[in-house]
């Protein structure tokens, strides 16, 4: 039986600045029955900026909640469901400019949304490059996440770092110490482009906590950009127990 399709939209112009962090920083956010998914032995988090377009919740386009920005901080996990490992993402923080989204998502699905004033810009640098910038206003100051992107897009290579960052089709929310909410994200494989001149200027301690300051305050480990596609999000259910792990 198909799970409930909670949300449909287009996710467009996805910018990912990725940072290596101490795994211990992520432990308080780790949902039950998941483990960290590492890239070449490294625990990575991503600062993500993108556009929600043509958004429908439960099949309805809600007034003033159709096209808007989102900036989030996420990290990567795996969950073994008794048959296979599922690779997913966990969100530490999600910023949007619409107050209704935090009200609904935080209460129903234990998300971590906060509503702030936001804006974005897309500027042609030359014939071959475009500058993308996402901004949000926090405590009276505009914070920003941006980069210059090559206009040539290519399919994601199997086994690449881009595949690790972008190809996570499950999400996990920590409800409490022994309960986790699982949801499924459906979209086509995205094409990606090279990124230069990444910038992340934000109140890291105020928005994400002081433990993230030493890691998000330095140059990113990597930076990627995807044009995006249509997406659908289904609520898969609650995980209440841990299946036996596969034998080594």
Overall description:
By secondary structure, the protein is mainly beta. The chain has one domain: Acetoacetate decarboxylase-like. It has five helices and 15 strands. The chain has helices at 23-26, 100-109, 161-166, 204-208, 213-216; strands spanning 5-21, 35-36, 43-57, 68-80, 85-96, 113-115, 118-124, 129-138, 141-150, 154-155, 170-176, 179-186, 191-193, 195-201, 222-239. It has a seven-stranded mixed β-barrel with strand order 1-3-4-5-11-12-15. A hairpin with a 4-residue loop joins β4 and β5 (85-96). The longest helix has 10 residues, at 100-109. The two termini are 32 Å apart. The relative contact order is 0.23.
User: What is the structural class?
Assistant: mainly beta
Q: Which architecture name does CATH use? A: Beta Barrel
- Overall 3D form: globular
The radius of gyration is 18 Å
- Strand ordering within the main sheet: 1-3-4-5-11-12-15
What is the average of the pLDDT values? 91
**DSSP strand content:** over 45%
Number of E-type strands: 15
User: What is the total number of structural domains?
Assistant: 1
Number of helices: 5
CATH class: Mainly Beta
* CATH homologous superfamily identity: Acetoacetate decarboxylase-like
Uncertain residue ranges: none
The succession of helices and strands, N to C, reads EHEEEEHEEEEEHEEEEHHE
The helix content, as a percent range, equals 10-25%
Query: How would a crystallographer describe the biggest sheet?
Result: 7 strands, mixed, barrel
Straight-line N-to-C gap: 32 Å
CATH topological fold name: Acetoacetate decarboxylase-like
Protein name: DUF2071 domain-containing protein
InterPro entries: ADC_dom_sf, DUF2071
